[in-house]
Structure formats: C-alpha cells, structure tokens
Amino acid sequence: MLAIFASIFSGFLSASLANRIGWEAAPALPSGAARTQLAEMLTPGLSARWYERSDGPFRNNGGETDAASVSYSTDRTPATEDVDAYLAGLQQRLEAAGWTVTDTYSTSPTDIETGARQNNSQALTARNDALVLSFEDYFDAASAEGGLIVSIYRAEPRWLTGSTLAVGLLGMLAGWLLAGWASRRLEHRPLAAALAATAVIGGLVLLIPAWLLGSLQYLGTLSGTAVPDSPFWRGLVPTDEFGGMAYPAGAAITAAIAVAALCPPRPAPATDPGPASHLTHEANLDQDQK
C-alpha cells in the first residue's frame, strides 16, 4: 500500500517539475505592436493605461503564485456605461478574432438583505490558443468612478499539458521502482525499515493538500473545462498557502531515501534444514557404504 502512495506522489512531483520547466518554453505575453493591436481590438478608441507586466511565466502575488499578466485600464465613457451593449460588442469582436468567450458574470456587490445587485458592473472571460482574457466593465451610476479593467495572461499550451501528463506517468513508475528497491534493501532490517516508512508516511501526509488541489486543477486543465490563472503545483511553492509544508515533506522523504541508501542490506537469516535434511543425509551415507 505504501508503494502505491509513493508512486502517486512521485508522479505528482515529477509532473510539477516538468510543468514548471516547460513553461520557460511557452510563448511570451504580447508586447509592443502586438499588445497595442490587442488593446485596439478590445477597447477601440480608448486610451489604455498599462500598469502591470511580468517577463517571467509567474509572479508572486502577495505570497501566492499566479500567472504573469499584462493589464491596463481605461476611463469611463458613455459607451462603457451601457455595460450590456459594450460587452455584447466585445463578445462579437472576440469571436471574429478567433477567441472563445468562456464566461460572463456580474461583479456588482449585492444587498445583504435582498441580494439585489447594487450596480451594473459585469465581467467577461475569454481565451484563444495562447492567451486568456479577463475583462471587467465597472459602472456605478451613484459614483463618479468606473471604467474598464483588462488583464491578459497566457493559457497553458496543449503540448505542455500533454508532456506534463507523460512525465507524471513516468514519475509514478519511478516511484514504484524506488519503493520496491527500498523495501528489498531494508527487508531484513526491521528497525531501519520502520524508520524509513515513518519518514515517508509523514512526508506524504504533509503533501496531501497540495496534491489534492493540484490534481483537481490539472484535471480541469487537461479536460479543457478550466483555464486557471495559477499553476497546479502552487501548493509546493514555500510562500504559497500550503507551501510551508513542502520543506518538511521534502526533508522527511529525503531522509527515508537516505536511510535505505546508507543502510547496507543484511543477508537473509540462515534457516534450519530440519529433520528431513538429516534423513536425506543419512540415506546418502548408507548409499555410499553400499
């Protein structure tokens, strides 16, 4: 049973490492003329105030690991105040440019007692093969504030999702073989075997939250039903929500492997040949005397 869990978590860790490395080869966020052209398609005739950009694939957002993005905002205009019409026009422009709108929803606060929306602010998400768009039209008739808020981040390439799965399966096989090797090496050393098993179990238990959340998120990405704005392995990042358990988990698993590697295998204890062997030996002596 322990070998099965070791195999599963080994696959998760291998897939996480492969995914993080693979992101370095993913297409970059739009910049320069491409970024300007995209803004003209999304918000034609409006001046974009770009305020965020990250050159790496991910960023540290207050301790959480999120996908790097480019973002901008625009001023409120009479056109953007008609939120329904503006988002309908945006959806038409996106579909004409090869994007797929995945969701539209209200971002307005609601009344605590009645649940009624307090303004007409709405948002839209869309994606194409390379990018994901988050678009919000903020409008409150009772306030002078408002306008458009646009964020664009990279969608995980299909080749990266597939290669992550392949490496994860290989990692599961490696974990199974590693568990078998350790079991055979410590087979006749009960104290060392118990110590290694305790360390492995402790390490795997600490990884359960990161593995559970990461696996569910990856399955959504693999099936195409979700386009998350953070990597599935974020629970392994020390600064993230469950990342604080990554260090002790890694130390415990490393200690278990070290016990198996440094502890020389003990030969199997000699077995008593039993009375049947004595009878055979006596029969051989009688045969020799004849």
Observed structural traits:
single chain; 290 residues; alpha+beta; Protein Transport Mog1p, Chain A; 2 domains; 6-stranded antiparallel beta sheet; two-stranded antiparallel sheet; elongated
Q: What's the CATH class label of the largest domain?
A: Alpha Beta
Tell me the number of strands: 8
Unreliably modeled segments: none
Helix content percent band: 40-55%
User: Biggest sheet, in brief?
Assistant: 6 strands, antiparallel
For the record, the CATH architecture of the largest domain stands as 3-Layer(aba) Sandwich
The H-and-E topology, N to C, reads as: HHEEEEHHEEEEHHHH
Estimate what percentage of residues fall within beta strands: 15-25%
Q: CATH topology of the largest domain, anyone?
A: Protein Transport Mog1p, Chain A
Question: What does the average pLDDT come to?
Answer: 86
Describe the structure.
The chain is an alpha+beta fold. It folds into 2 domains: 2-18 and 158-262; 28-154, 3-Layer(aba) Sandwich (Protein Transport Mog1p, Chain A). 50% of the residues lie in helices and 17% in strands. It has a 6-stranded antiparallel sheet, with helices on one face. Strands 2-3 form a two-stranded antiparallel ribbon. Helix 1 (2-22) runs antiparallel to helix 5. It is elongated. Residues 53-74, 268-290 are annotated as: Disordered. Residues 279-290 have a biased composition (Basic and acidic residues). The chain crosses the membrane at residues 159-179, 191-213, 245-263. Keywords: Membrane, Transmembrane, Transmembrane helix.
